[in-house]
Design a protein that fits this description.
Length: 284
C-alpha cells in the first residue's frame, strides 16, 4: 500500500513539474513575443525621424558629379538649398515622399503628439493585408496603421477612415482608448496627418464607442461605411450621428466641405466592439 501511495505521489509530482515546465516555457515565449512586437512597433514609430537626409539642422548630402575631364568630384549642399524650389513642402512631407521609395503603399504619416501613435499609414488593395503585415510588407501580428482601401483620393470632402490594432503592449492604436476620458482629450485635442501633398492638423469633434452591427439591425450608426459622401445630406448625417454618439460634449464640429478623419480600433467592452475618434481638418 505504501509503495502504491509513493508511486501515486511521485506521479503527481511529475505532472506538477511538467505543468510548471510548460507554464515557464509559455511565459518565456510570451515575454519574447511581447518585446519583439513592441520593438517592431517602436521601429515603425521611429522610422520617420530615422531618415538622416531630412534632419532639420546641419544635415548635408553628398552629390556626386562628373567633371568634363571624367574625374568625379563631390559637392556638399544642404537640404535647405536643395529644397528651395519646394518651399511649399514641409520637412515631413518630404520625409513621406522618401518613405514611399521603400514602399509605394505608404500614403502618409499619422501622429498624436505625446502618445505612442506616431506611425506611417499605408493603403492596400484590400483591408486584410495590412492587418497582418507591417510597413515593410513582412508578416507581423502588429500589422500596420492603414487607410481603408476604398477611400477615393479623387473625391474631396471625404472621410479618411484609418484602422489600427488595439494591442496589449500599448502600441499601434491601443492608446486611442484613452480618449474615453475627457481629460485625455483635453490634453490631446488634435491629430496630425501628413501626405506628400499637405501637412495637416485635425481637431477632434467626437469620441465614441461602437460595434460592428448585423445586417438585420436598423437605424444604427455604421460609421465604418462612411468614406466618400454622395451628398451634403449624407455628410451632415454622419457628423450629426458622430456628435450624438460622443462620450462627452465637444464644442468643435464639422460643416459640409470639411475634410474628416476617423481613427478606428477594436474595443472589447462588447463582442465586435469598436472605438472611434473623429476629427475635421483645420483650415489654414
Amino acid at each position: 500500500m505504501k509503495e502504491k501511495t509513493k508511486a501515486k505521489r511521485k506521479g503527481i509530482h511529475v505532472i506538477i513539474y511538467l505543468l510548471l515546465s510548460v507554464l515557464i516555457i509559455l511565459s518565456i515565449m510570451y515575454i519574447i513575443n511581447f518585446f519583439s512586437l513592441k520593438q517592431e512597433a517602436e521601429e515603425q514609430s521611429k522610422l520617420l525621424s530615422a531618415i538622416d537626409i531630412y534632419e532639420k539642422e546641419g544635415t548635408k548630402e553628398v552629390v556626386q558629379n562628373v567633371s568634363k575631364d571624367g574625374e568625379e568630384k563631390h559637392e556638399e549642399t544642404t537640404i535647405a538649398e536643395n529644397a528651395e524650389e519646394q518651399k511649399e513642402e514641409t520637412e515631413r512631407m518630404l520625409q513621406v515622399k522618401e518613405l514611399q521609395g521603400q514602399n509605394a503603399d505608404i500614403i502618409g504619416w499619422l501622429e498624436i503628439e505625446n502618445t505612442n501613435i506616431n506611425y506611417p499609414v499605408l493603403q492596400g488593395t484590400d483591408n486584410s493585408y495590412y492587418m497582418t503585415h507591417n510597413y515593410k510588407k513582412e508578416n507581423s501580428k502588429n500589422g500596420a496603421i492603414f487607410l481603408d482601401a476604398n477611400y477615393n483620393w479623387n473625391i474631396p470632402s471625404n472621410n479618411l477612415l484609418i484602422y489600427g490594432h488595439n494591442l496589449g503592449n500599448g502600441m499601434m492604436f491601443q492608446e486611442l482608448l484613452k480618449y474615453e476620458k475627457e481629460s485625455f482629450y483635453q490634453e490631446h485635442p488634435t491629430i496630425r496627418f501628413t501626405t506628400t501633398e499637405e501637412d495637416a492638423q485635425y481637431e477632434i469633434i467626437s469620441v465614441f464607442k461602437s460595434r460592428v452591427y448585423h445586417k438585420s439591425e436598423k437605424n444604427v450608426f455604421r460609421y465604418y461605411f462612411f468614406l466618400n459622401n454622395e451628398s451634403e445630406e449624407e455628410y451632415n448625417q454622419f457628423v450629426k450621428n458622430a456628435k450624438n454618439a460622443s462620450l462627452y460634449s465637444i464644442d468643435a464640429t464639422a460643416n459640409y466641405g470639411d475634410q474628416l478623419i476617423t481613427l478606428s480600433t477594436c474595443s472589447y467592452y462588447v463582442e465586435d466592439g469598436r472605438f472611434a475618434v473623429v476629427g475635421r481638418k483645420i483650415k489654414n
